[in-house]
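Table 4 source record.
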Amino acid sequence: MSNNQDIKALRKEVKELRKTVYSLKDTIIGLTNQIETGSSESPYEGGQYNIFPNRSNCLEGDASWDRLVTLLHNEDSGLTAAELAEKWGKSRSRTSEVLNKLVEDGQIVKYRDGRMIRFRSVDE
């Protein structure tokens, strides 16, 4: 595949992933509202359970993100999302999501190494 085709394929995948994330977020909000209001569809009494006390941060702030950054500090040439996913013990897609958030926050650096995208700590 040419670079152009790779980019188009990645854009399509990102678009589909965004749809999935938004759909899941809507489902989570709907289920939380059912539990909070005691909807007759819920087997639990209203207010007894709170799935996400802070819904706005349900995709952010994973406590193990620090471990991911530490893994990058220990690598001289950086790692790909797939390599990090294996070491971190999470899926490649979840790892990529967290890595891109960490890049946005300025905690790590994303760079191209030939055909591969690598991530490294900012200190290097």
